Amino acid sequence: MFVPYYMHPLFKLEDRERYQNRWRDPGTGEENSTHQKVLEFIKQGGGKYFLDLAFSRRELPGINFRYAEFWNCHFKNAAFYSCSLEFVEFFNCTFENCGFAFVGFLGAKMEKCVFRQCDFAEHCSFESTTVVNSMFDGCFFGRQTPFQECFFDDLTSIKDMKMHSYHLTQVDTSPAALAGYFSSFQAAYEASGADELASKYYWEGRKAYTRHNTRGWQKGLAFTVEVLTGYGVKPQRPLVVMLLLYVAATALFAAAMPLKESIVFTAGALFTFGASSEHLNTFGYGGRLAYVALSFSGVSLVSLFVTSLANLWFRSKIPKQTIRPG
């Protein structure tokens, strides 16, 4: 369950003030060391925020950026290694071809940010991270999903997710991990009430699980459920199956009665209103069993259709939320 940064048990107001003060009055000790490191990496600095800065081909190893705020920054070919990014705020920042390793975005906030072809290759995590109106385009996120209990609003998008690291040839995402990725995206969109996007990633997650995480008869059963039900988010699936079953049964029963009567008889069996049921008197055991099976299938498919439709269209909506950096 998503927890806003200010409710996170590790978030402390006094720590935020102390860490942010190092850019105004670095003093001595760790604060001074961090301040001097950053001043060596960039030509501008100081103040409460990093404003309008360009980081190009910079290595940023082991820097404690906790509670820092970055506004209107462009990071290009930058490498973040073993950095502390807990409770950091990014506003209108672009990360282009950047690499991240051993970095945690705990309680971070990102608004109007773009991550383009970035590489989160080793031990990166986004935990309780708020992402608003931002985009991850062509990024590699690691062997398993780094997103845990996050918040994605309906303007946030994940495009062209890569399966292989840009920098580490031996690191890639296994197809078996895709279900976990899509599930984490689903949970992040559900946290903001973006139901359509949550449904999309629920569907993608179930498809990925069926294809990459099942074996033998379980795979066959999972594909059957997918085709017949659409996992509860594709109401057209049971409707199409019902139509195909009706056409096939009409053709079958037309061998025992005129076509115009078979049309009504099949509808009566499929939707259980019993039209032209007097023709059952001429059927043997096989025909009667087919009639019963058709009726049972009709009841099941109608139930699946109504349930899927209700799940997709009529479930109560969570009001859309807009969380902005404080």
Give a description of the structure.
It is a single chain. This protein is an alpha/beta fold. It has two domains: 5-213, no CATH class; 219-314, Helix Hairpins. The chain has helices at residues 13-21, 30-41, 178-192, 195-212, 216-229, 236-253, 259-270, 285-314; strands at 49-51, 54-56, 59-61, 69-71, 74-76, 79-81, 89-91, 94-96, 99-101, 109-111, 114-116, 119-122, 126-127, 130-132, 135-137, 147-148, 151-152, 157-159. The strands form four sheets. Strands 1-4-7-10-14-17 form a six-stranded parallel sheet. The longest helix is centred in the C-terminal third of the chain and has 30 residues, at 285-314. It starts with 12 loop residues before the first helix and ends in a 12-residue tail after the last helix. The model is unreliable at 42-52 and 320-326 (pLDDT under 50).
